[in-house]
């Protein structure tokens, strides 16, 4: 059915006509059924193609409506208990999904080269940067036998929020949580100190940051098993992709801070999304102001 009034905390799914998009839909529908949430299917078409003065506009609209209708029918087959609505939206996918992200519990998009607007890593980051809620990017990996939730941490306020989000996800789904903190110091610092002393100093400092990041999880989630993983010679993106190779979910913060804390919305997230190991969520829990 077409969207009427605003749905309460729906999962918003960006829909295009690809197998990757259908895989993302299946992931979103499973989540919606478990969380007892409605789903809003959004298909965006360039406003130029729905200008009434442009002759083929009716054909473009009809194709979009047909895609949404077929997708909604498929969604109903996957999870009959989930309420599904559809929306054909003018404008770019980023604009359409940002507009609908306000009040949504999550935005979900699939991977695939046919996503309008460029490579999926670029498009996903654009959407994550402007969305008002967490954004999940879902690939076509075989999820059979996968276990656990992995989250990147770097001591920033945003990554602490990401850890909280990941802990709630893991606890809700009966999964173990792995918190990964990757440290790659600038070469000039390594050269300035003896290797043994440098490694010992860096590892100890970062171990404290990691411990502080997970502090409080035991109180909030007494049954949650939490693993702390400190990697001192890995690029953050490489560490996260490796740690999440067999995971059910990977969670990234919106950005990071510091001289070698590199969980940035740009570099690390972009690299992770280009080598997507599993469904990955970029959190946008709340904005944090930084002096820099």
Give the helix/strand layout.
Elements: E1 11-14, H1 19-35, E2 39-45, H2 57-78, E3 84-90, H3 93-101, E4 106-110, H4 120-130, E5 135-138, E6 149-152, H5 157-173, E7 177-182, H6 187-192, H7 195-214, H8 217-220, E8 226-231, H9 236-243, E9 249-252, H10 267-274, E10 280-282
Parallel strand pairs: 1-2, 1-4, 2-3, 4-5, 6-7, 6-9, 7-8, 9-10
Antiparallel strand pairs: 5-10
Helix pairs in contact: 3-4, 4-10, 9-10
What features would you describe in this structure?
With 292 residues, this protein is of the alpha/beta class. Helices cover 42% and strands 17% of the residues. It contains 10 helices and 10 strands. A 10-stranded mixed sheet has the order 3-2-1-4-5-10-9-6-7-8, with helices on both faces. Strand 9 (249-252), helix 10 and strand 10 (280-282) form a beta-alpha-beta unit. The longest helix is centred in the first third of the chain and has 22 residues, at 57-78.
């Amino acid at each position: 059915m077409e969207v009427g009034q605003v749905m309460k905390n729906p999962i918003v799914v960006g829909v295009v006509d690809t197998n990757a998009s259908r895989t993302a839909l299946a992931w979103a529908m499973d989540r919606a059924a478990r969380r007892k949430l409605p789903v809003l299917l959004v298909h965006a078409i360039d406003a130029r193609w729905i200008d009434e003065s442009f002759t083929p506009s009716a054909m473009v609209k009809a194709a979009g409506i047909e895609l949404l209708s077929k997708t909604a029918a498929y969604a109903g087959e996957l999870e009959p208990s989930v309420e599904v609505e559809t929306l054909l939206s003018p404008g770019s996918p980023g604009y359409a999904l940002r507009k609908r992200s306000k009040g949504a519990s999550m935005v979900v998009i699939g991977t695939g080269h046919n996503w309008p607007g460029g490579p999926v890593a670029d498009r996903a980051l654009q959407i994550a940067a402007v969305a008002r809620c967490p954004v999940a990017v879902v690939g076509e990996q075989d999820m059979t036998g996968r276990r656990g939730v992995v989250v990147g941490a770097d001591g920033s306020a945003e990554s602490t929020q990401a850890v909280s989000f990941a802990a709630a996800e893991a606890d809700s789904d009966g999964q173990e949580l792995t918190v990964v903190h990757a440290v790659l110091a600038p070469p000039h610092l390594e050269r300035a100190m003896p290797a043994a002393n440098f490694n010992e100093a860096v590892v100890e400092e970062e171990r404290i940051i990691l411990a502080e990041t997970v502090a409080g999880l035991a109180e909030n989630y007494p049954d949650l098993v939490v693993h702390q993983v400190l990697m001192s010679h890995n690029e953050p993106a490489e560490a996260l992709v490796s740690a999440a190779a067999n995971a059910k979910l990977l969670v990234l913060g919106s950005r990071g801070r510091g001289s070698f804390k590199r969980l940035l919305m740009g570099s690390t997230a972009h690299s992770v999304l280009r080598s997507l190991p599993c469904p990955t969520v970029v959190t946008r829990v709340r904005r944090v102001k930084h002096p820099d």
